[in-house]
Amino acid sequence: MSSLAFALETHPGLKRPKNEDAVGHALTPWGGVFVVADGMGGHRTGEVAARLAVETILDHLKGKEPSPKALLQAFEEANARIYQEAQRPENRGMGTTATCLLLDLPYALIAHVGDSRAYLLRKGELTLLTEDHSWVAERVRQGLLSPEEAKTHRWRNVITNALGSFPQARVDLMGLKLEPGDVLLLCSDGLSGVLEDRTLGEVLKSFPPEEAARRLVALANEWGGPDNISAIVVRVPEELPQGGRPYALPLEAAKGAPVRLKLGEEPEELPTQVLEPKRPRVRLNWRDALLVLLWVVVVAYILLGYFKRP
Fold first, then answer.
1. What angle do CA 185, 187, 193 make, to 5 degrees?
2. Which residue ranges does the record assign to the PPM-type phosphatase domain (predicted)?
3. Which pLDDT does position 279 carry in this prediction?
4. Domain residues of the chain, as ranges?
5. Which of 130, 144, 163, 203 is deepest in the core (most CB within 10 A)?
6. What gap in Å lies between CA 17 and CA 1, rounded to an integer?
7. What percent of the chain is helix, strand and coil (3-state, nearest 5)?
8. Is 20:39 a contact under the CB 8 Å cutoff?
């Protein structure tokens, strides 16, 4: 899409001997696919895991019409591929974060695993779209750590979810309707862990994508560059196509608010609006099932005795 402005930058930083981040993109008739990954597990395996994630996700999505289900399947395929590689003794501990932006203009779908991030700059206000899957982030959400304490905690680099760590992927999905001029930022924690959100927002507001991405990486290095640094900046066109999609988004997302997507129970489509509270499914364990069976037997015995009376 010619009017879609974007830029990708990645740098090893100043303290790491090798760059274990990976970035990639592919333009599509609907907009494009953008991925950032931050590998872990050692200098060689981390690099391989990040590259495999980016390649697999892009290959899976390039030839398919965009949908939440297709995005989830791309992450599941990447997870399976990396997990298989991680079973080799020389690759123990291999894994990677991954954050993917799938543009289906005028909509954006985002899938996320780990502590890489996706941000939205809209009308001068920067919003974090993703939640970090890390030990300190979970403690912050529980109220056990403050955001300031989390930044300097000795376990701030401990990831609780990564592609390749488990046989099945645990993926966060989000969706929203874009507005003209929106700017999206995907980045590894080598950027978000060094620069404050206020700085990220100021750079994104002040410069076009190519210059913004370059300046963000340079600023992270000026502040010490303790980790690999990656940034993808995408500016949405001023004129956006209109019309519906074959999949449905929750009403809030269709109106422009970022909304988490749940595909576990409804993999084919998502509700367009909430008409009534969804009744929770009741799942019985074997103890509950035994109690129900005993109750039925007792009731049947009582009724049988009642009908046998003269």
1. 120
2. 5-236
3. 32
4. 5-275
5. 163
6. 36
7. 35, 25, 40
8. yes
Q: Residue 115 in contact with residue 97, Cβ under 8 Å? A: yes
Beta strand 31-40 with 183-187 is unpaired
Extract the tokens encoding 160: 């609780």
The model carries a pTM of 0.81
Tell me the two tokens of residue 180: 């003209």
Q: What is the pLDDT of residue 269?
A: 38
User: For residue 243, what pLDDT is reported?
Assistant: 74
Q: Where are the beta strands (DSSP E) in 129-268?
A: 172-177, 183-187, 229-235, 259-260
Q: What distance in Å separates the CA atoms of residue 284 and residue 306, rounded to the nearest whole number?
A: 31
Amino acid in position 210: E
What fold does the segment set 5-275 form as a domain? Phosphatase 2c; domain 1 (3.60.40)
Give, as one character, the DSSP assignment of residue 134.
B
Q: What is the pLDDT of residues 176-222, one digit of tens each?
A: 999 999 999 999 999 999 999 999 999 999 999 999 999 999 999 99
> Which helix (H) or strand (E) segment is 218 a member of?
helix 209-222
Strands 95-96 and 31-40: antiparallel
Cα separations in angstroms, 129 against 3, 143, 176, 184, 211? 24, 20, 10, 10, 23
Of the chain, the end-to-end C-alpha distance in Å amounts to: 85
Unique residue bearing structure tokens 């009724």: 303
pLDDT below 50 — which residues of the chain? 1-2, 264-284, 310
CA 154/CA 152 separation, integer angstroms:
6
Cα 224 to chain centroid distance, Å, stands at 27
Four-CA torsion 243, 246, 251, 254, nearest 10 degrees:
-40
